[in-house]
Amino acid sequence: MAQAEEKREENHVLLVAFSSQGHINPMLRLGKRLAARGIHVSLATTEIVRHRMLKSSSAGAADHVTGIELLFFSDGLSLDYDRKTNLDVYMDILGKHGPSNLSALIKEHYTSPKKLLCLVTNPFVPWVSDVAVEYNIPCAMLWIQPCALYAIYYRCFNKLSAFPTLTDPDMVVELPGLPSMEKEDLPSFVLPNNPFGSFPKLFSELFQGMEKFKWVLGNSFYELEKHVIDSICELYPIRPIGPLVPPTLLGQDQELEDASVDMWKSDETCIEWLTQQPPSSVIYVSFGSIVVLPAKQMEAIAMALKNVKRPFLWVVKPPEFPTPDGAGQLPSWFLEETKDQGQVVRWSPQTRVLSHPAVACFITHCGWNSMLETICSGIPLIAYPQWTDQPTNAKLIVDVFKIGVRIKKEADGNISSEVIEKCIEEVMVGPAAEQLRKNAMALKAEAQKAVAADGSSDENIRLFVEEITCDSCKKDGLPNVGNLSHEGQDKVSDKGV
Ligand SMILES: O=c1ccn([C@@H]2O[C@H](COP(=O)(O)OP(=O)(O)O)[C@@H](O)[C@H]2O)c(=O)[nH]1
Ligand SMILES: O=C(/C=C/c1ccccc1)O[C@@H]1O[C@H](CO)[C@@H](O)[C@H](O)[C@H]1O
């Protein structure tokens, strides 16, 4: 036991993630890249994750993911509490109980916590940096959305730029390194009508106290977001180290195992079905793990899929708790009327679906993990964003990455099936569609280059490992330098911001 503990503390990094699959998996993949450079890695998250992992698989334990040890602490709520519907209460209780429960976990598992090289946290659990201070351990943040979102929030919550207000809700926002943004392009948490008070509070504290983080790493790559990454480098730099997606999507060794957790059991039969479809023919539709679409919007999508008469694969994840009037459910006529045209599953093996040659395009809510997986698969997107970062991600897809189109809402906030049908034709037929596919393939190649040996992301990981393991850096404290793998940020390291 004493020997195991000694090993755990030697060259060890502890990752701490919020409980959602889209937050844990990029952290685990970062862990895998650190482990490949000789670092011992554990990941701590809340008990609800262990519960979901055990429910989704036949395995009797949830203690390791490809060499990364998993540790769990309580968020202060019972396992059957509906966290999604009571978001503000959840974030509040997590913020109150998380720090002491994580601190107790560290005490229990590490005899000398001070020896930990670093704690790495993500944005929804920013209080991890206070636990790091308690134990005198350096702290890094893995930013799990586009670097654009990091720059927007940094400027908004430090009041460096003007954003919409109740008196001027329609103002256009102009920020360095980004296109002009209207209110429908901005993250929902910065808008005056955002109903979730916990997030502006959390982000204000986070972005006004960034000095607690010695490093900010980003799940993105320099070549994808260079203008906005350069634009923030003199304020508080972010070092892109992604895309943190399965190795198979990055053209890496097919034998390399992915580091990820599955909170829902995926239906593998859709892969057999895809294999029977013509190349580049299938419309893949999914809105991720959290979004539940109102019945009217489900109806519009169903009608559009039926009318375009193309094969489709639609993920309809049953809501975990009861929803109002048919939200998240298929219209009653749909399965019968499209039975020879497509498949509906409750949860798909998404990364295998996106890289399948039969898939032509993806109608998506624009969660950042889904977007990165699509970029790495080289296919175009149809954006239907809902909340948080998704509207801005949609703006990036259309106006910056130029790999897709966006479903425009009607004045009453609904969508029409005709508009969806038009979007499908736009990404599948004609010269504009061909250009989108070309752009998507070019970004896929850039993503592979970034993570390959000596690529921009690989170099940033190397630098991070060098800095967390370097004794004199630990003692003297590190300057917060940006991405040193390209010229734009060299001046930052000279100044030692
Ligand atoms: O049927 C599905 C739908 C989604 N995902 C995975 O769930 C994650 C969703 O993360 P994202 O950030 O896109 O959205 P969120 O679900 O967090 O809103 C991605 O890694 C997807 O590959 C999946 O495996 N199967
Ligand atoms: O994964 C989430 C979690 C949101 C959540 C769930 C329950 C209670 C509070 C919050 O959000 C997704 O994260 C992705 C990465 O940050 C992001 O790109 C997606 O848009 C979010 O849906």
From TrEMBL:
Keywords: Cytoplasm, Glycosyltransferase, Transferase. GO terms for biological process: 3,4-dihydroxybenzoate metabolic process; cinnamic acid ester metabolic process; ferulate metabolic process. It is an enzyme of class 2 (transferase). InterPro entries: UDP_glucos_trans, UDP_glycos_trans_CS. It catalyses: luteolin + UDP-alpha-D-glucose = luteolin 7-O-beta-D-glucoside + UDP + H(+); 3,4,5-trihydroxybenzoate + UDP-alpha-D-glucose = 1-O-galloyl-beta-D-glucose + UDP; 3,4-dihydroxybenzoate + UDP-alpha-D-glucose = 1-O-(3,4-dihydroxy-benzoyl)-beta-D-glucose + UDP; (E)-ferulate + UDP-alpha-D-glucose = 1-O-[(E)-feruloyl]-beta-D-glucose + UDP. It is found in: Cytoplasm. CDD domains: GT1_Gtf-like (cd03784). GO terms for molecular function: 4-hydroxybenzoate 4-O-beta-D-glucosyltransferase activity; cinnamate beta-D-glucosyltransferase activity; flavone 7-O-beta-glucosyltransferase activity; gallate 1-beta-glucosyltransferase activity; isoflavone 7-O-glucosyltransferase activity; quercetin 3-O-glucosyltransferase activity; quercetin 7-O-glucosyltransferase activity; sinapate 1-glucosyltransferase activity. Its EC number is 2.4.1.-. Its main location: cytoplasm. One of its GO terms (cellular component) is cytoplasm. It comes from the Eukaryota. Belongs to the UDP-glycosyltransferase family. This is Glycosyltransferase. It comes from Eucalyptus camaldulensis (River red gum). The gene is UGT84J3.
